[in-house]
Amino acid sequence: MRDVYEYAVLRVVPRVERGELINAGILLYCQPRDYLCARVELDEARLRALDAHADVDGVRHALGAYRLSCTEEAGPLAKEPLGSRFRWLTAPRSTIVQAGPVHAGLTDSPEDELEHLMARLVRAAQD
C-alpha cells in the first residue's frame, strides 16, 4: 500500500545575498504513517567552495536542530503534532540553513524513500 508523503530539501546558503546553495539534507513527512524525519549530511568541502569562511560548526548545529525537531526529545516543537512541526520547519526563511519548496509523492516505505532522496538530491555524484 502506497501513502502520500511530503518532503523538502534542507539547503545551506552560506551567503544569502549570492543565492548559491548546497543541499545538505531531506525533511520527510508521511501523515498516514505518522512519520517525520530529517536526515542530514553536510559536505564541508562543497560548503567551503561556496564560502571559505563559512561557520561550519554553526551550520552543523542548525542542521542538527532540524533532526532534533523531528524527535520526541525536549525542544519547543516536542509537543506539537508532526504535521505542525513539518509546516513550521518548511516555512520560508532567509537564513543560512533553510528548507526548499515542499514536494509530494507516493511511497510504501518512508524510510526507504528518505534514503532514495538523500542519494539522489544530497550526496555528490560519484564519477
In brief:
The protein is of the alpha+beta class and 127 residues long. The chain has helices at residues 44-50, 56-69, 82-89, 110-122; strands spanning 3-12, 22-30, 35-40, 97-99, 103-107.
Task: Give your account of this protein's structure.
- The protein is an alpha+beta fold and 127 residues long.
- 33% of the residues lie in helices and 26% in strands.
- The chain contains four helices and five strands.
- The chain has helices spanning 44-50, 56-69, 82-89, 110-122, and strands at 3-12, 22-30, 35-40, 97-99, 103-107.
- Strands 1, 2, 3, 4 and 5 form a five-stranded antiparallel β-sheet that branches.
- A hairpin with a 4-residue loop joins strand 2 (22-30) and strand 3.
- The longest helix is centred in the middle third of the chain and has 14 residues, at 56-69.
- The protein is globular.
